[in-house]
Amino acid sequence: MLDHSHHDDQFLVVRDAARHFGELTAFARVNFGVAAGNCCAIIGDNGAGKSTLLQCVIGADRLNAGSITIDGADVDESSPRFRATVAAVVGDVATFAHLTAHEHLQLVATAHGVPDPYAIATATLSDVGLAGAADQLPVTLSSGQRRRLALASAFVRPRRLLVLDEPEQHLDSAGRSWLASALEQEKRMGTAVLLVSHDSDLVAAVADHVVEAGTWH
Ligand SMILES: Nc1ncnc2c1ncn2[C@@H]1O[C@H](COP(=O)(O)OP(=O)(O)OP(=O)(O)O)[C@@H](O)[C@H]1O
């Protein structure tokens, strides 16, 4: 595995990270970094520990050894600074049954203190190809449309690190092209992107470096 962690300019730094579940090692001796404006893709087999690592990066799980720092600070999901820095789409994103797609995005934008939540919700729905579904409730969306809404919820937040677990899931080919261009745009804005993906086209299109999960054990 390439080791990028020795650079001082890394926004996200993972050092000697390990996570065990009893006898099972999800990953160990993981070292890498992601600089602002760069995308790191983690690839590897099912069960190789990729999602578990992302959970540790976003503070939903904890390492048994090693460290993860974001902009020089330890992971702390309860700190306002962390909330304003890290936007993640991992696993199934929870939705409120009674809120429309547009209202969901307004809610997220409002929660993060974004100016003009109504306007950013409208613009982002259009960006993700959901303008026509703005007034629909989550239950009436297709799985691909739900995935687009989940991604949109990350794009209405302030963020300097974007963490995505298999964002290509459920997307059609137009959706995957949109995703690749959206991630390119994120990089241009200076966001560091950490991506787990099984889509080699997406990885080839957007990743500046690739971490191979299979080499962790
Ligand atoms: N909470 C947990 N308790 C026990 N074992 C767990 C837990 N979470 C994950 N594991 C185990 O850790 C290993 C890594 O799982 P993980 O979901 O991180 O893999 P992955 O690389 O994301 O796989 P996939 O490509 O299928 O999404 C698996 O063997 C899994 O069973």
UniProtKB/TrEMBL annotation:
SUPFAM superfamilies on file: P-loop containing nucleoside triphosphate hydrolases
Pfam families attached to this UniProt entry: ABC_tran
InterPro entries assigned to the protein according to its UniProt record, in alphabetical order: AAA+_ATPase (IPR003593), ABC_transporter-like_ATP-bd (IPR003439), ABC_transporter-like_CS (IPR017871), P-loop_NTPase (IPR027417)
The organism's place on the tree of life at top rank: Bacteria
Keywords recorded for this protein, A-Z: ATP-binding, Nucleotide-binding, Transport
KW Hydrolase (keyword) present: no
A Gene Ontology molecular function term of the record: ATP binding
Name this protein carries in UniProt: ATP-binding cassette domain-containing protein
Organism the protein comes from: Rhodococcus kronopolitis
